[in-house]
Each structure stands twice: as C-alpha cells, then as structure tokens.
Amino acid sequence: MSLPYALTVCLVLLCCSVQFGISEFFGQKSEAYKAESPSDILDNLLKGYDKRIRPNFNIKPTSVNVSMYVLSVSSVSEIQMDYTIDMYFRQSWNDPRLSYESKDGPDTIMISNDANIWIPDTFFANGKASYFQMATTPNTFTRISRNGDVRKSIRLTITASCPMNLQYFPMDSQLCALEAESYGYSAKDIFYKWIPNGVGVSPDVQLPQFKLTGYRQKEMNIALSTGNYSRLSCEFQFVRSTGYYILQIYLPACFIVFISWVAFWLNRNNMLARVAVSITTVLTIITLMSSVNASLPKISYIKSIDIYLFSCFLMVFAALLQQATVEYVTDCINDRNKRNRSPYNLAGSHVKLTTDLEKNQMEQTHVSEAEIGGNQTTSFYGIVPADLDKWSRIGFPLVFVVFNFFYYVIYSIASDVTMDDLTKP
C-alpha cells in the first residue's frame, strides 16, 4: 500500500469519527433540553409526592403569607348584618418537596390544576356565602418557583357577617372584619401572617350609602375547643353618608312639623280646620316613623333617628293639644259670658243686647270685655285664647330650632369615631 493511499484512508476515518462525535454530542444536548421541560419537571417533582402531608411535617410549622386586593364592595346591609366584597385572595408558602434545579428550565412553573399538590385549607371564619369567579375560565392560578415557593391566587366574591351597632344611625360608622384561618390545622402546624402592605383597595370602590374610610390588618391566635388556631383579620371602616336620609327623612319630618304650625295662624272660630291640620300632621309623622323602622332590623335599643322622629311627633302632637286647649278655654269663656248675660244678671250690666242678631254676632266673634263692657270676661283662669296662639307662634319654632341644634351637635360629636391605625384606601 502506497503512502498517499494510506493517508487518504486515515483522513476519511478521521472525518467519520468527528461527524459521529458531533452527532452524538448534539443528540445528548437535545435529550437534556427535553428533560428540562416544565412537563418533565412536574412529573419528576410529583413522583412520590404525597399531597396529604403538609410541608416540613414534624420539622416546623408551615408559614402561609397572605395578601388581598379588594376590587369592589357591592353592598352593606343593616337588615342582614353583612357586607359583600369582590377581591383577589393570594397565598404563598414554601414546599421543599417542590424545589427543583434546572439550568435551562423556567424559573417558575404555572399549573392550572393544583389538585396534586398540598394546598392550605384556608376558610373565612365569618363568611356567610362565597363563590369563585368562573367567567370565562376559573379565575385562579398556582405558580411554583425553583426554591419550592408556591403562590396561589384566586378571585372570590364573599358575603361576610358584620355585627353593627345602629345606636347612632344614620350618622354611624361600622367596622366590618374579614377573618381567614385554617379549618383543620392548628397553630402548631400552620400559622398565617400578612405580607407587608398585604391589603390593597381599588380606588374605584364606591358605595351609594357608605364611604370606605380605611382598613387595618391584624394577626391573632384564637382558642377553640379543638385547639389554638392562627387567624388573620382585615377590618374595614364604613362611614354612612347622610345625604339620602336628610332628603328622605329629616327634611320631610321638618316640613311636617312646620305644617302643624299653620294652625296657629288660622282663625280660632274655624276650629275644624285647625284640628284637621294638626291631626293630619300627627298621622303623617306616624306613617313616616313606620316606614323608616320597616327598613331596619328589629333592634331593642333606641337609634338617633328614633329620637329625632319621636321629637317631631311630640311637636305635632303638642300642636294638636294646643288646638284642644284653645277650644276648651274659648268654650269656658263663652259659657261664663252666657251665664253673665242671663236675665238675672242684666240689671248690673252696662251692655244692653237689644236684638237676637247682636247676641249671635257676639257669640260667633267672641267679643271682648272692652267691646261689650259690663262683667263679661275674656280669660279663663288668666288664660287668653289669643295669647295662646301668640305664644305658640314663637315658642314652638324656638323649641324646635334649639332641639335641632343640640341634636346635630351631640350626635355629630358622639358618632365621630376616628381610628388612628387605619390605612387610607
């Protein structure tokens, strides 16, 4: 074999070896990249994984960090004593069994179905009803990081109970809490904590009758019959807007009281019209009181609006009593004057009533002593009907104005409860 031929054979063999090595190298790289895909990572993580066992079992309690973002507050009900909010509820914890090392793999893996991993059994202790948002797909996700951190976010609409004190209604403010804790794990197994600035509220949150003035976060341990449990609480302060009640209740009540004073300017001889005005206002204020209480829960204590409406009722009822008093005093004076004008008393009288027409005219107009002279009287035990109307025209408005002034001052101060530790939305 000649030397050129031998060199040619060696060169061909060398090229084949290099090509085979390059092909094998890139084949191994392709297989390695395929092994680093999220599906393969999850398959490897879930091999031997038991979702029934919490992370760090028999080592230390599992720390669950919680945050929430309120999207809207749809209602605050005094009758049901609850409120409804729509929010993002997020939980994060560390599960060492889900940590992975991958040079070319993703930093986080998002899974749509978390049924195969351990999830905290969080529930809302004061929740009355809740449901998940399902349009257009279930509004939830779960992410797993390289170091085993798991983050779960879900959109919830929750109706939670809110015991309310309506003593200062409708100038009241209510503090409504949302409480979350583990249903089955005690504080020895799971403890919850808020992340810094873990609660957020959308600036678009608006309510027709309330204003959300602030919120605060609390962490606590609750002792129950089954053990001690870690609980998180977020308290929202709602201040009632009084504009609706001023227009629909307070102003109508004031006008009803004003109408009852019209009777003081009517002629005393037209007693039927005076009494009709007073009775109408009494019935109207009773109807207003009934309609207000029908829209509120049956509570045993007195509310501020009850005091106002009952005071208005007393004002119109006092106006009715004033009409009755005027009529009674007038009748007593007329009876006494009739006795003084009898045939047995005419001898000492300076007034001579010559015709029946003059008698009827005097009785109808209740003439005074200055007009008819003699021993006729215009008062009954010092009470003059005309003076009663004059005093009522001044006294009733003055009392009502003073009452309104003290009412609004006292209840505005008493109901102004400001909490310094609240975070403004």
Which features does this protein show?
425 residues, 26% strand, 39% helix
Commentary on this structure:
Helices cover 39% and strands 26% of the residues. It contains 8 helices and 11 strands. It has helices spanning 3-35, 38-45, 243-260, 271-294, 304-340, 356-365, 369-372, 385-414; strands at 62-77, 82-94, 108-111, 122-124, 127-132, 140-145, 149-161, 173-182, 190-201, 210-224, 227-240. The strands form 2 sheets. Strands 1, 2, 3, 5, 6, 7 and 9 form a 7-stranded mixed β-sheet that branches. It has a 4-stranded antiparallel β-sheet with strand order 4-8-11-10, with no helix packed on it. The longest helix has 37 residues, at 304-340. The chain is rod-shaped, with a radius of gyration of 43 Å. The N and C termini lie far apart (93 Å). Mean pLDDT is 83; it is low at 25-35 and 345-374.
Taking all Cα atoms into account, the compactness measure Rg is 43 Å
Distance between the ends:
93 Å
Oligomer: single chain
In sequence order, what are the helices and strands, one letter per element?
HHEEEEEEEEEEEHHHHHH
- Tell me the helix content: 25-40%
Low-confidence segments, given as residue ranges, are: 25-35, 345-374
Q: Quick check: average pLDDT?
A: 83
Quick rundown:
The protein has 425 residues and is an alpha+beta fold.
Detail the topology: elements first, then pairings.
Layout: H1 3-35, H2 38-45, E1 62-77, E2 82-94, E3 108-111, E4 122-124, E5 127-132, E6 140-145, E7 149-161, E8 173-182, E9 190-201, E10 210-224, E11 227-240, H3 243-260, H4 271-294, H5 304-340, H6 356-365, H7 369-372, H8 385-414
Helix pairs in contact: 3-4, 3-5, 4-5, 5-8
